[in-house]
Give the backbone structure.
Amino acid sequence: MSNLLSLSSVAKKIWMSLMGLFLFTFLLVHLSLNLTMITSPDSGLFNEAAHFMGTNPFIQVFQWVLFAGFIVHIILGLILQVQNWMARPNAYKKKASSEQSFFSKYMIHTAVVIFVFLIIHFLNFFLVAKGLIGEIGEVTIDGVTMEDMAGLVFDLFANPAYVVFYIIALLFLGFHLDHGIQSAFQSLGLNHPKYTPCIKNAGRLLAIVITLGYVLIPLVIYFTK
Ligand code: HEM
């Protein structure tokens, strides 16, 4: 923590951007695996993938790298936001923010919603999958008995309150990504009058596609399973 505090503002932004892009790649992998829940018959492929992820030693180690990525991104984001609030008088803040994109003004707010979502998400799935809380059924696929992770997700999304909560939280994630992706490229110095508009549009498109992909999962499960 003190190491993170002692970094210069530029170094903090660079680390935050690198962690943000790393988390973004996790979101892509997580989404493609989760989509197999609604695309593969009986969600067998999803359960097999979840079983592989939950038992492969490399993935188990990598999971801690992922969690460290979340923690560094969150702590640096908080420090930079507080420094920003302390450094800027109100009048300047208003003027500067009017030149920024709409969602850039709400990064800390969308981040808080995503953080609350992540805690609830861990209680819903991760801690249950690890056998730390709740109960999870079992399925046997090709002679291998494993946790019925898809069943756990289906049970959760049978509840309309969870469907609505997940969709709202995922929309906030989309808003966060919309500004976050292009902002990461800027902080890494990848700035060019010709390419920056292209990066912004690509970032927005990816944010929309990822958000729609995630939103589809609770909706399809609620209406069809
Ligand atoms: C419809 C949306 C989502 C569904 C159905 C879903 C489902 C799941 C499931 C079933 C697990 C447990 C996997 C296991 O431990 O074997 C999990 C873990 C996890 N999810 Fe999600 N997830 C969704 C969205 C998200 C989003 C948007 C984020 C990040 C902002 C996220 C972050 C995580 C993390 C960090 C873990 C723990 C690491 C892992 O097991 O891969 N999830 N999710």
User: Anything to note?
Assistant: The domain at 2-224 is CATH 1.20.1300.10 (3 helical TM bundles of succinate and fumarate reductases). The chain has nine helices and two strands. Residues 9-39 form the longest helix (31 residues). The mean pLDDT is 91.
